[in-house]
């Protein structure tokens, strides 16, 4: 397989089934699996450890955890532990979270750029096995270092990728991170502006865009029946447009449509509410911002993201048979 490919797992399958999907993706040459952590559903760290334990080569990433709810010392220790389990196979994908979820659990997302910058910079130093004292606006540590009682004491190779959405966060990602986890539910041309911002950020730290890895989440519904694949994606988009309006904004979706969907959906949304609102999501939008349809249609769409700067598609199977999706892209 010439093209790098990754699998994205969230919360819509049995966790033990996920272990089988990851092992199958590894057998078919996929480079990585990423575990989501979005709404208050499934933590990312526990599945990541499980995936790492049952595989030998595939990389395991968080896609993405937030930088607010885990203390920096615990965050670094967590990824050190994962790296102990699967040396040089762990990726830390981290994002700034969103409201209303953050607000509803008591997090005030003030100055998200500063908070992210402090988290990434101190995380890198700790995983480099440095002793760190730092007093910033959000991160305060006094003479701490990762204390390895059993295991490797040398610096750890854990790339840190920021799941950036806003322009300023995207530019800062180019400056301070090893890579970006590009958004899903966007059209391939969305990447043009993202790459411009990454280039600008990379220049600030004396790097080029080629030094910034650019994996991208891609909603992917593959079915031999085109209409069935489209309908499955429609249900997912109905929920996401209501609950993550920042993604809707990046997708260029009308805020009137979002408001109408939100008026029908509760939190968490019931299946009945989603069915009632899904007619509001047009097929044109589904085809524009996801890779949905037959295997050939899905492959063609994913190729568009690659042509527009994505280095490794992270395929999010929203419906149908996960192994069919893996087989579809193992042949690219």
Structural overview:
The chain has 332 residues and is of the alpha/beta class. It has a single domain (6-222, 291-330), classed as Luciferase-like domain (TIM Barrel), CATH 3.20.20.30. It is built from 14 helices and twelve strands. Strands 1, 2, 3, 4, 5, 8, 9, 10, 11 and 12 form a ten-stranded parallel sheet that branches. 45% of the residues are buried. The mean pLDDT is 92.
Keywords:
alpha/beta; TIM Barrel; two-stranded antiparallel sheet; 16% strand
Could you give a short description of this structure?
By secondary structure, the chain is α/β, with parallel strands linked by helices. Helices cover 46% and strands 16% of the residues. The protein has one domain (6-222, 291-330): Luciferase-like domain (TIM Barrel).
List the helices and strands and how they pair.
Elements: E1 6-9, H1 15-27, E2 32-35, H2 45-53, E3 59-62, E4 65-66, H3 72-85, E5 90-95, H4 101-104, H5 112-127, E6 132-135, E7 140-144, E8 160-163, H6 167-176, E9 179-180, H7 190-204, E10 215-222, H8 226-243, H9 245-251, H10 255-264, H11 271-277, H12 283-289, E11 291-293, H13 295-307, E12 312-319, H14 322-330
